[in-house]
Task: structure prediction
Amino acid sequence: MTGELSPIDKAKFVAAKRAADYVEDGMRVGLGTGSTAAWLVRCLGDQVRDGGLRFKGVPTSSRTADLARKVGIEVISLDEAKWLDLTIDGADEFDGDLNLIKGGGGALLQEKIVATASDQMVVIADIGKEVEHLGAFPLPIEVIPFGWQTTQALVEETLISMDVLGRKSSMRMNGDRPFITDEGNYILDLSLQRIGNPRQLALVINQMPGVVENGLFIDICDAVVVGYGDGRVETRDINEGTVEQDRIDFIETDNLFKDLAE
Ligand code: 5RP
Result:
């Protein structure tokens, strides 16, 4: 099965596999959303079933919750966990300070709440997610449905005075209907091209009525595990200032790839 994976999927897989080593018995762990996080959940499920790993997972979306249960991970809510040892999640972009754009999968609100309630956040990503400046990936913001067009106009107007190159926004769609988040809200994707001051932008956007949360994760991520299509992985820890390199062999197991075939 791994032979059929694209280089990007292999990169995502090795990053997830390496990051699974962070999870120890007895931990409460936030489980991210997206295709890279799905690899993580599969790897952890494999270790629960075959390696006897025991931990509790707090999913950041209904999709991740479904997959986690399916692969045998014990799922609890954030309110049950209250505080987490660790969150591992994907990202749409990360910069040299490990600031992130997240929300490509539409789960940014739960993802930010869960990551912020964790002693440590580890991001897993293929090397293509690394950028010098955030903003090429459209910045998702979650808005409440009431008056969303007014909120959109307010956001676009506010962007005029921000250090960004673009200020167009679009409503995220799911077919011919608005994409609805797990909290029943809409997502606006902001095409900013380059964000000069992500910290300032994150604060300003969140002050607008109608905005629930934005996809900029500033000073939340502690380490990034970067995967390459040839099996190399690099772990960069911003607190320790360390960079560790490793290589992961693609080992095909029935369990790990089972749900892909279903
Ligand atoms: C979901 C996210 C994801 O982590 C992000 O979109 C990356 O996804 P993928 O791992 O599929 O590339 O923020 O809201």
About this structure: The chain has two domains: 2-129+219-257, 139-214. The radius of gyration is 18 Å. Helices lie at 7-19, 35-51, 62-70, 78-81, 108-116, 148-159, 198-206, 254-261. Residues 139-214 form a domain with the Alpha-Beta Plaits fold (CATH 3.30.70.260).
